[in-house]
């Protein structure tokens, strides 16, 4: 399966005006966001775009009230001070400022892994069985109901923050200690035994899948952002299998009301086949990040990818006017 690479609609960087590259923030994923943001900022500036770094939502809102920026490239990660939970999107909608990525509903829904899985199940899309753990829930009873092995993770975090791999009942001790100090809901999910994949989404296009092969036992925070020995095979599958995983990822993305760009994580269970895991609506743009790797596979370099993502913030009239000027 060969994906056609999208092309920039025009070449004039002035059409974007002054762009705020929103990074950092106060979520648990701040450091990853800062690295992603610096990379995006450098890429946009390399293409002549008048782009500026803004750290966190309060600083952005103050700048927008002073009308210092015309659009926002959101590369905040996470929630509670991150930019993926719908709060930022709601504020920007109220201010009438265009921004990259999914809207309020898609951002809020996909930030919540439990609710995303409920939507997928209602649409008949495959996802591992799970238990919803409210604060104070009996984690051991949930594990017995699902059967080991399982993963335990916050419903509303990313970047493998607070994720526990439970192979034996004794492994629950650390997860329970974390739960005692964590205010939000946790997701306990049956562990998929098989291969791990991710599929980048750009508009209506599913990018080539990437098969992730960590050197360790699983793809944890270290393997994602620090280790240099994690293997990324792209495309991850071939023929009909590759077509199937891209189609499933795009259906999952749309079912969760997501738009613009993002990434869908998928596992292939040895018995059950493809299983949807979660959606990332502001994917990382670090040296280890996966959407840029998939984009390169179809001929889109990093600078062009950032340009194309930002193009999605332009209204049709703006694009049409730019094309007329170009002609």
Task: Describe the global form.
Answer: globular
How many domains is the backbone divided into?
3
> How many beta-strand runs?
13
- Low-confidence parts lasting 5 or more residues at pLDDT below 50? 317-327
Enzyme class: ligase
Protein name: D-alanine--D-alanine ligase
GO molecular function: ligase activity
Pfam families: Dala_Dala_lig_C
Structure description:
The structure is a single chain. This protein is of the alpha+beta class and 327 residues long. It has three domains: 13-101 and 301-326, 3-Layer(aba) Sandwich (Rossmann fold), CATH 3.40.50; 110-127 and 193-297, 2-Layer Sandwich (D-amino Acid Aminotransferase, Chain A, domain 1); 130-190, ATP-grasp fold, A domain (Dna Ligase, domain 1), CATH 3.30.1490. The chain has twelve helices and 13 strands. The chain has helices at 30-46, 57-65, 87-95, 104-111, 113-122, 139-146, 172-181, 221-225, 239-255, 290-297, 302-311, 316-326; strands spanning 18-23, 50-55, 71-74, 130-133, 150-154, 164-166, 186-190, 194-202, 205-206, 210-213, 231-233, 261-269, 273-280. The relative contact order is 0.17. Belongs to the D-alanine--D-alanine ligase family. Pfam families: Dala_Dala_lig_C (PF07478). Its EC number is 6.3.2.4. Pathway: Cell wall biogenesis; peptidoglycan biosynthesis.
């Amino acid at each position: 399966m060969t994906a056609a690479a999208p092309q920039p609609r025009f070449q004039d960087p002035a059409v974007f005006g002054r762009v705020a590259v929103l990074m950092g923030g106060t979520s648990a994923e701040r450091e990853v966001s800062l690295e992603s943001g610096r990379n995006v900022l450098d890429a946009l500036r390399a293409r002549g775009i008048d782009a500026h770094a803004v750290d966190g939502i309060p600083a952005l809102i103050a700048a927008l009230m002073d009308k210092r920026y015309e659009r926002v490239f959101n590369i905040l990660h996470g929630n509670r001070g991150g930019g993926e939970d719908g709060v930022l999107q709601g504020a920007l909608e109220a201010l009438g400022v265009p921004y990259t990525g999914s809207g309020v509903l898609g951002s809020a829904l996909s930030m919540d892994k439990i609710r995303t899985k409920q939507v997928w199940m209602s649409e008949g899309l495959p996802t591992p069985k799970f238990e919803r753990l409210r604060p104070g829930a009996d984690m051991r009873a949930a594990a017995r109901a699902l059967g080991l092995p399982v993963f335990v993770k916050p419903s509303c975090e990313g970047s493998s923050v607070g994720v526990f791999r439970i192979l034996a009942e004794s492994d629950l001790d650390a997860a329970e200690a974390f739960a005692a100090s964590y205010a939000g809901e946790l997701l306990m999910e049956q562990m998929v035994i098989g291969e791990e994949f991710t599929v980048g989404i750009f508009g209506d296009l599913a990018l080539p899948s990437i098969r992730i092969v960590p050197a360790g036992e699983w793809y944890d925070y270290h393997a994602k952002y620090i280790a240099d020995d994690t293997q990324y095979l792209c495309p991850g599958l071939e023929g009909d299998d590759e077509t199937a995983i891209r189609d499933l990822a795009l259906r999952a993305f749309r079912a969760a009301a997501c738009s613009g760009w993002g990434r869908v994580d998928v596992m292939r269970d040895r018995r059950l086949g493809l299983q949807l895991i979660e959606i990332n609506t502001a994917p990382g743009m670090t040296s280890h990040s996966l959407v840029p790797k998939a984009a390169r596979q179809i001929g889109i370099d990093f600078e062009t990818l950032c340009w194309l993502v930002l193009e999605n913030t332009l209204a049709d009239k703006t694009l049409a006017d730019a094309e007329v000027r170009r002609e």
